[in-house]
Design brief:
It is built from one helix and seven strands; from the N terminus they run βββαββββ. It is mainly beta and 93 residues long. It has one domain. A hairpin with a 2-residue loop joins strand 2 and strand 3. The longest helix is centred in the middle third of the chain and has 8 residues.
């Protein structure tokens, strides 16, 4: 699978597993993901509240996030949690 934000390719997703409503995997990021590093760091920071107002409205809109599966089908996801260790988690929309 491949992760996208609008039309921007952010990385390859592999080693996918499911736990309840959550999908967990590993991501091999593209260089395009760099501009989202602070956004993802804030999103996964469990010790502080995530402040949507600190980020672009487009970034916090679930409709802008999706994956392309191995059959080249576009599937909508909620904003993914991308961790510094290369783990990614999301829920399907």
């Amino acid at each position: 699978m491949k992760l996208y934000f609008i039309n921007e390719y952010l990385g390859d997703i592999h080693n996918t597993g499911v736990e309840g409503m959550w999908v967990y995997a590993e991501i091999t990021p593209s260089k395009n993901i760099d501009k989202f590093n602070d956004f993802f760091a804030a999103l996964v920071d469990e010790e502080n509240d995530f402040e949507e107002a600190n980020f672009s409205e487009e970034w916090v809109d679930d409709n802008n996030w999706f994956v392309i599966d191995d059959e080249n089908r576009k599937k909508g996801i909620c904003i993914p949690a991308v961790y510094p260790d290369g783990v990614i988690a999301w829920r399907w929309r």
